[in-house]
Amino acid sequence: MDHLNTCPTSIAPTSSAAVTTVASARRRLLAAAVGVAGLLSLAWPAAAQEKFIVVASTTSTEQSGLFGHLLPAYKAATGTEVRVVALGTGQALDMGRRGDADVVFVHDQVAEEKFVAEGYGLKRQPVMYNDFVLVGPAADPAKVKGRDIVAALQKLTTAPGATFVSRGDKSGTHAAELRYWKQAGTDFAGGAAKPAGYRECGCGMGPALNMAASTGAYVLADRGTWLSFKNRADLAVLVEGDTRLFNQYGVMLVNPAKHPHVKQALGQQFIDWVVSPAGQTAIAAYKIGGEQLFFPNAAR
Fold it and tell me: Which domains does the chain have, with CATH numbers?
C-alpha cells in the first residue's frame, strides 16, 4: 500500500511566499481604491458647491468693460460666478436656442421678442440703454457731421472714396445699421448691391473700430465701446443725438422647458439682481473718464 502514500506528494504544497505576495498585492489595490475614493470625496463637495451660470451676451457689454465692473459685485452679493460668452446678438440668441447658455443679455429688441415668441426664452426684461454713434475721420471728407443718421448715410453713398466698415456679424449693432441703411434708401438686407467702399468685417465692435481707425473709414458704434476704445487714431464722433440711435438692452432666461439642464434658479437670480435697485445702481455707477456708459431703465 506504499504506492497509495505517494499520491499526495504529486501535488506541490502552496508556497508561503506566494501567499504573502498575493496578500500584499491585494492590500496595495485596496489602499489605492481607498485613496481614489478619498480624493473623490474631497473633490465632489467642491464641485457640488461651485455655483455658476453661462450668460450669452454682446461684445459691447464685454468690450466696454461693463461686465468687468458688474460681475465682481454680483458674485460678492450671491456667491455665484457668471461666465460670459461675448458674441454678436444674433449668435448669442443662437446659443440660447441650442441651450448652451442659461441667460441671454443682448440688444436687439425685435430679435429678442422673436426669441421669446418662439418659446426659446422666458419673459424679456429691459435692463439699460445707451446710444449708437457714427464715428469717422475727424476731417469728415464725406461731410456727414450732424444729428441725422439717415442723411449721413445717404451722403456716404455718394461721397467719392468714402469707406464704411460694417460689423457684418448679425449683432445688435449690425441689425441697427441695416435698419438705418434701409431708411436711407439702400436695403442691404434685402439684397441691394454693396458699393466698393462698404466693407463687412464679420467681427466684434472693437475690431471694427480698429479697422476704421487704420483705414480712415466710417463705422456705426455703440457709445459704450467707443468710450472704452483706446486706439482711436484720428476718429471722432460725427453723428449723435438722433432719437433713432437709441440702443436698448434686454435680458431673458433660456426656457428650461426646451432645455431642462438650464440653471433656472441661478439664472433667474442673476436677472432679478440686474433689474433690482442694487444692480441698476451698479450699472449707473460705471463710468469712463467721468462719463456714464449705460443708463438703467428696468423700472420704466
Answer: 50-129+249-296 (3.40.190.10), 131-245 (3.40.190.10)
